[in-house]
Fold this protein.
Amino acid sequence: MLNKEKLIYTCERDSDFGARLIDNLLIPLVKDKERMDSLFAQKLQAEYGHLLEELAPEWVHGFTEQYIAAQLFGPRRLLKAYMPDRRIQNRSSRERSFLEAKLFNPWRFAFLRIKEELGRDFSRCIMC
């Protein structure tokens, strides 16, 4: 049986951890240390420069952050190299556990199709 209250709690907690640890800590850290944003921007411009002119700057910024997150949490697991960083180690044990769990469950991109609406903010999906 689907426990919507537990799902809502988990989604909100993970969103909060994600904002604090990924958006506000790891992505800026990787941008600073790896210059990955500049490298990705060069690749993006070389491949899709003609399309980028038509997009709002916030879209390009979003693509860049998604790329960095994919490097951190995808098959490359760049996160592993950053776990010993004092800024990570100084976080709470719950926050570190959240990140450590990401090492064992790498992100992957998937295309989904909504099969059934289950109510506000919930759907049952199938992979395409």
In short: Helices lie at 4-34, 36-52, 57-73, 79-82, 86-89, 93-104. The radius of gyration is 17 Å.
